[in-house]
């Protein structure tokens, strides 16, 4: 039996998805795309899941696109038609990014080793990124004559500003995890030995928080980037109105007044 390309494990309300092509540094093929998207869809549909952790098996998080995959490998035959990379982005990467950014639960990336190209931006699509100290982020696209994809052109300027984003994207240099944390590209850099436990503790904490409010926070911040202040204030009022009618708000207030730990259940 063929080993799955995405390993799935559960610990309470936390589901961990591990990319599982370690010999190829977990680089993307069409098959890996399909399995990862299916795994994310399954987690989204499972009411028992309140947080997802995304990581990589072996010594890398994800080295990006496998350039030997038939979907992108140039045909060496003279006069052969070039590969339609736009089709690959639209068919595989676009749906994956859209699913990650619209998950009904928080998603934590635990970055072990290299995260390059699409792999780097896959991590940055997650809500919180924790990386081991030996990990690195590489926007490798210009080295093969391409632009950042997998949401990179949208994510990078929002995370680190246009000046740093252009430098990171155009030069394509390796960015160590400590530097990535220092400039605000990721949430946290920890010792390699502490990565799994740190990600697990963070995911467990998020799983015990009001899921609907966490997801609404992500969406409100994303939406506000394209709004003026007045429109953002109106949107805050709309979202707060909806959350104020949810059970988690009542539970949170009652727990605060009773000086007890809240038990949040909305999702």
From TrEMBL:
<dbReference type="InterPro" id="IPR014748">
    <property type="entry name" value="Enoyl-CoA_hydra_C"/>
</dbReference>
<dbReference type="InterPro" id="IPR001753">
    <property type="entry name" value="Enoyl-CoA_hydra/iso"/>
</dbReference>
<protein>
    <submittedName>
        <fullName>1,2-epoxyphenylacetyl-CoA isomerase</fullName>
        <ecNumber>5.3.3.18</ecNumber>
    </submittedName>
</protein>
<dbReference type="InterPro" id="IPR029045">
    <property type="entry name" value="ClpP/crotonase-like_dom_sf"/>
</dbReference>
<keyword id="KW-0413">Isomerase</keyword>
<dbReference type="InterPro" id="IPR018376">
    <property type="entry name" value="Enoyl-CoA_hyd/isom_CS"/>
</dbReference>
<comment type="similarity">
    <text>Belongs to the enoyl-CoA hydratase/isomerase family.</text>
</comment>
<dbReference type="GO" id="GO:0016853">
    <property type="term" value="F:isomerase activity"/>
</dbReference>
<dbReference type="Pfam" id="PF00378">
    <property type="entry name" value="ECH_1"/>
</dbReference>
